[in-house]
Amino acid sequence: MSKEQTPSILGFSPTNSNKDLSDRDNWGKNQFPNIFPIGLACYQHRQDIQPVYLTLDSDLDVRKGNVSVTDIFGLPPFSDNLYYSFESDYEYYRPYVNGVLNRIDLVTEEIKNGLRSHLRPIEIKLTALPDNRAVDLSEEDYGSEIVVRPDTIVYLALSIIQLFDSEPEKLREHLAPVCEIPNIDWMSVGDVRPLINSLKKCIDGILLEKIELQFPYLMQPIWKTDGKSISLEENCFDIFMWSNFAFTRLFMDAPLRTSDKISRRNRTIVWLARMLYEYTITGKLDYQHIIDDYTYNTKNDKAFAVSGAVTNPYMKCDELTTPRVTKDALKKIILNGGEKYLSPERRLDAAVQALNISRG
C-alpha cells in the first residue's frame, strides 16, 4: 500500500506518533476515541475554530472562553517538531511519585536535535451528545456523560503538586486543619463523611492560591446525533477543553446527600485531598494505596461518572447546541479510507461508516 493509500487521520504522519495508522488495531475500541480527537483538533486549527475553554474563576465558577490548539498541544499542530505519544506517562511528574507513574491518554512532545521533551499531559474524553438521560430534553439542555478514571485524578493531583513544588509547606497549611485531626480512621465511612465539606474548602483554597496557573487538561470532543439514532446532525463536532481547575467542579460541586454512604464524587474529594497531603508529608505520592484503601464500600474501577444533566450547566453555550464542525468535515479528517478500519457495532464508528466519506 502506497503512502497516499495508507489510512490516516489529519495531522498524523508516519513519524510523528507512536500509533501506526496503517495497523487496523490502532483504529480499535480503545484507540479511535483518542486518535480521532487529534484530527478534529487539527481541522479546527486549520479552520481557525478555537476550542471552547472552560476555566475556574476567583468565585469558583466555571467560565467559558476559547483556547488555541497550539496552546493545548504546546506547539502548532502541524509543526514538524510535534510528536504525539499516546498512553504515555508525563516525565515531569515522575519525581513526585513512589514507583511507576501510570499513563495518561496523550503526552505531546517536542522533537529537537533528535531528542524528544514532554510538553503537555492531556486526558481525552470523546463524548456523545445527547446522552441517554438527555435525549428527551430540548437541545439547549442536551449534555454528555463523562466517565472518569482514577488515573485522571492522580494526574490532577500531580498538576497541583507541581505548582507547589518549591513551597510544599503552603500546600500543607491548607490541608492540615482537616488532615491532621487526631484519631481519624481514613478508611472509615463514619469518620470521613463528616469531613468532606471541610476537605472541599481546603481544596478550594489551594486552587484559589494558584488560580492564574491553571492549564488545559481534559479534552472533551463532542459528537452530536439526531436523538438516539446513529445519524449525525449536520453540525455535529466541536471540542471543549477543561482546565485542570475547572475539571474539579465535576466532583467538587457534588452535594453531600443525606445517607450513611460516601458517593464516588465525594470519595474523589477525599482521594485528591489525601494525595496532596501525603505529598506534603513524605515528599512522594503513593497514589495506589489511597485508591485501593479508601474505597468506602464502592468499587474503584472508576473514580466517578457524571451524566449530561451534570455537565450541561458548565458547558451550555451556542457551541454545545450547534457544534461548529459539520459532518462533511469527516472526509478531511479521516483520510484514505480509514473509516473502513472502524467497527460498526460501536455507535460513532457506525455513524462515520454510514456517511461513505471516501465516496464524497
Features:
single chain, 9-stranded mixed β-sheet, 34% helix, 360 residues, alpha+beta
Word description of this protein:
The two termini are 21 Å apart. This protein is globular. It has one domain (3-355). The protein is an alpha+beta fold and 360 residues long. Strand 2 and strand 3 (62-66) form a beta hairpin. The protein has 14 helices and 13 strands.
Helix content: 25-40%
| Count of runs of 4 or more consecutive helical residues | 14
**End-to-end distance:** 21 Å
Q: Order of SSEs, N→C?
A: EHEEHEEEEEHHHHEEHHHHEHHEHEH
Count structural domains: 1
Low-confidence stretches: none
Overall morphology: globular
Strand content: 15-25%
Radius of gyration: 21 Å
Mean pLDDT: 94
Protein structure class: alpha+beta
Q: Major sheet: size, sense and barrel closure?
A: 9 strands, mixed
- Strand count: 13
Question: How would you sum up this structure in a few lines?
Answer:
The protein is an alpha+beta fold and 360 residues long. The chain is built from 14 helices and 13 strands.
Please render the helix and strand layout as text.
Layout: E1 8-9, H1 32-46, E2 52-56, E3 62-66, H2 69-73, E4 82-88, E5 104-112, E6 115-124, E7 127-129, E8 146-148, H3 150-163, H4 168-179, H5 189-192, H6 196-209, E9 216-225, E10 232-243, H7 244-247, H8 249-252, H9 264-282, H10 287-293, E11 304-306, H11 308-315, H12 318-321, E12 325-326, H13 330-333, E13 334-335, H14 347-354
Parallel strand pairs: 2-10, 6-9, 7-9
Antiparallel strand pairs: 1-13, 2-3, 4-5, 5-6, 8-11, 9-10, 10-12
Helix pairs in contact: 3-9, 4-6, 4-9, 6-9
